[in-house]
Amino acid sequence: MSLPPGFLDELRSRVSIAQVVGRTVTWDLRKSNQGKGDFWAPCPFHHEKTASFHVEDRKGYYYCFGCQAKGDALTFLQETQNMSFMEAVETLARDAGMQMPAREPAQRQREDRRATLAEVMEKAVRFYRMQLMGSHAAEARAYLDRRGLSEEQRERWEIGFAPDQWQALNDHLKQAGVPEALIAEAGLTTTGRDKSRPYDRFRGRIMFPIRNTRGQCIAFGGRAMAADAQAKYLNSPETPLFHKGANLYNIGPARTASGRGQPLIVAEGYMDVIALVRAGFEGAVAPLGTAVTEDQLRLLWRMHGEPIVALDGDAAGLRAGLRLADLALPMITAGQSLRFALLPGGQDPDDLIRAGGAQAMQSVIDNAVPMATLLWDREVQGQVFDSPERRAALTKRLKTLCGTIQDPDLREQYQREFNDLRYQLFRRNDAPRGGKGGYGTARGRKGAEAPLPGTRGSFLAAGAEGADEELREAVILAVFFAHPVLLAEFDGQLMQLETRRDDHRTLLDLLLQAAHEDPAPDHAQLAQRGGDALAALMRQPHVTIAPMLRPGADLGFVRQCLATDLEVLITRRALKRELEELSAELDSLPDDTLTYRLGEAAAAFDRAGRSDSNDSTTDLGEDRASLSAHLQSLIDSQVWIKKKRRPGPG
């Protein structure tokens, strides 16, 4: 609707902004000068305790010296009550006794029709409310009792009951003078094969009125009492009043609560919303029998920049949350996103509040995670990234996700976030590269002392040079469980350790978690957490004979053994990976780059092999000599030049 020139100016001149604002705030009478139209109060926008919110009634403006909020009476209604501009205009016009501008005939006809249908819906509300008090609704009342809804709560939400009869509501409304055509247009009746005999759409159901932002009843949601009902919940169809994808249950009160600073919480169903509001979370809404739509997202963001989606703590709830995140991703902007509250143990908000009270729900809300975290968890959950192909596939999926974000600045922030998370995930598997692409820094811990004579030969002084890497890995893990006081000292090397077996990976994760939780983890508690996997590890023959696991082993000796063998194991695997990468890149890398990288690898390989010990040349295993010779032969023969010059077919 267009407004004629001068209408808004006259409206502002007729309305006292002090009266409009005074319905929401409490004036500081010591600071205010009412005679001059000068008013002060604590700010309603950032909920302060001091009076820095200033209203000049004669000028018709407000300003907060704390948060810099400013505007006129229309702005105030829009910001505090989440009204649209036209809703604020209509509200002030009613207060000022001004007639809204005349509408076009077609528009007037549509609005009159909608008003008539809204009256029909109110008659239906009263009918269903009366039916809930009857003897045929005993089972419905018992159900509401079990769900903890008192009579006061039923009245607050106007809950009713549709009797299990084919034409109870239709007959009632006809007797009240409502034409059958209007009843059907309101979505209250439907027809079968016999189009001439309409019957009630809702039968044998607990009824929840659905109201719009103006408080009009526009639809119903009905919960079936019969266990064999085709649909547990049934909503009104699309009507001139109701569009499922463009409305939300409890939207009016939630909009007001959100405007007062309460969180906006998106739950799954009617009972969840009722439970949340009853527990003090008045900004609760729910979609209407469908997944959240784009229109509903825009509606939510008009009320709050970051609604919290309360996900039921089961697989279906998580899937619904992920679908919503995918829907929202192209639409998010700076200051317009979602957070996700993950409820525990298969519970919904109603279950959680009944079990743990409002505090339990508040804790879940306080721990709501950003949308980026939810999407990241989906991409990595239950997967192992132990190969370049798997890592590349993850990178590709994350790039695809980020590519759907339309806001370029936000897209860049998501890319950075995913890159950081990916680095944290992979750094346990990536040995640190030194210099210009080599592994010269693979020796790890700063200030590591030279190995003691008793550690020569390595494999934790067990005399098992050249043993399988998994055996060396097993002994290292066992030693840390036996001496958890060393975890903090070797945390960096443990993060680099690539475990090849699932049981070893589980134990390594336990060690890393313990190191991050406590600088000196309790030995008994750590062993208990290791469970069967640790017990099986400790029974392995090469573990039982390790000197570091003998009672009374010297801690300095254990420390030196760990320093040597972690360095050996990490370096060996890093060098093997370097060889594999270089072999795969013979055709693409420049000759000088290949020569340099092979030389660096050979030097690092040699340094790790010497390990400051006269007899530890076998520290990298029996294949050290062959690996070293292979490296040197590649350097001497410059095989990549021959490969590149090899004539092609034809």
Task: Give structural notes.
The protein has 650 residues and is of the alpha+beta class. It has 4 domains: 7-96, DNA Primase, Chain A; 108-242, DNA primase, catalytic core, N-terminal domain (DNA primase DNAg catalytic core, N-terminal domain, Alpha-Beta Complex); 261-378, Dna Topoisomerase Vi A Subunit, Chain: A, domain 2, CATH 3.40.1360.10; 453-637. Helices cover 50% and strands 8% of the residues. The strands form 4 sheets. It has a 5-stranded mixed sheet with strand order 12-11-13-14-15, sandwiched between helices. Strand 3 and strand 4 form a beta hairpin. Helix 18 runs antiparallel to helix 21 (523-538) and helix 18 packs antiparallel against helix 23 (555-584). The chain is globular and about 95 Å long. Residues 431-467, 608-624 and 639-650 have low confidence and may be disordered. Pfam families: DnaB_bind (PF10410), DNAG_N (PF08275), Toprim_4 (PF13662), Zn_ribbon_DnaG (PF01807). This is DNA primase. One of its GO terms (molecular function) is DNA binding.
